[in-house]
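On clarity, I found the account of how folds are encoded harder to follow than it need be. Since the whole study asks how a given chain folds, the encoding of that fold should be made plain. For the editor and my fellow referees, an illustration may be useful. An entry of this sort, consisting of the sequence and the corresponding backbone structure tokens, reads as follows:

:::
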Amino acid sequence: MLIHPQFDPAAIRIGSFAIHWYGLMYLMAFAQFLLLGRMRIRAPQYQTLGWTYKDLEDLLFAGVLGVVLVGVSATPCFICLATTFSTPWIF
């Protein structure tokens, strides 16, 4: 049997404000995307394709927007599905 540690999901807590670990992971992923994207854009094969830093930032914005919109819209659907399968007599 696996024993899972009981850790606090909040990495930083200031009063009632908390920054969770998954939020920090999203920030690190977006920062890494920008860092590696800038390194790639400097490569000759991408310069010949016409990629610019503005294109990279636009792509990052679309990705962040997609993560937020899908997270906000899909979470209630999954919660509803979980409730439906666990207690089908409610619906």
Remarks:
- The two ends are 35 Å apart (CA to CA).
